[in-house]
C-alpha cells in the first residue's frame, strides 16, 4: 500500500521502522496529549497493531516518508476507533517535531481522506484533546468540522476533554 502526495509517500510500516517511530512516540513533547510517552516496547506493539489493521481492514497508520530522500518523518493513516457507542474510521497522525509546522500532517491527512472516499467510506473522523490546537488545525484544514466534546478511555485511562471532528465523504 502506498499513497502519494506532492512531497510525501505513505507506505505500510514494518518492525524495521521502530527506531524511527521511537523518535516521535517516546518524545515527551510529542506525546504530551497521550497518557505517557511510549517505551520502545510500546512502539513495537503500536507497529504490530497496525500490521494487524492492514490485514483486518486493508488500512492502518502508515509510515510517512519524504519523497526527496525516503526519510520516515512519522505516521498517518486510518484506524477504526470507538467514540461512545459508534465505531468510525479515524485519521490520526504523529510527526517528528523537526518536521512539524511545514504542512506535512495536513498533506498526509488529506491523502488519507481521499483514500477513505475511494474505499467507499461515507464519513471520516479525527479526535484529539481539546487543547491540542495543532491537531485541531490539521483536522480543520482537512475539511473536518467540530462535532462535539466527549470522554474516551485511552490506554486504560479515562480521558476527558476530547473533541470530535468529522467530514462527510
Description of the molecule:
Helix 1 (18-25) crosses helix 2. The chain has 4 helices and 8 strands; from the N terminus they run E-E-H-H-E-E-E-H-E-H-E-E. It is of the alpha+beta class and 169 residues long. It is globular, with a radius of gyration of 15 Å. It has a 5-stranded antiparallel β-sheet with strand order 1-2-3-4-5, sandwiched between helices. It has a 3-stranded antiparallel β-sheet with strand order 6-8-7.
Mean pLDDT: 95
Looking at the structure, what is the overall shape? globular
Instruction: Bin the strand percentage.
Output: 35-45%
Number of strands: 8
- Give the distance, in angstroms, between the N- and C-terminal Cα atoms: 21 Å
Low-confidence stretches: none
Query: How large is the radius of gyration?
Result: 15 Å
The biggest beta sheet is recorded as:
5 strands, antiparallel
Helix/strand class? alpha+beta
How much helicity do the residues have?
25-40%
Order of helices and strands: EEHHEEEHEHEE
Side by side, the strands of the main sheet go 1-2-3-4-5
Please describe the structure with a list of short key phrases separated by commas or semicolons:
169 residues, 4 helices, alpha+beta, three-stranded antiparallel β-sheet, single chain, five-stranded antiparallel β-sheet
Summary?
The protein is α+β, with helices and mostly antiparallel strands and 169 residues long.
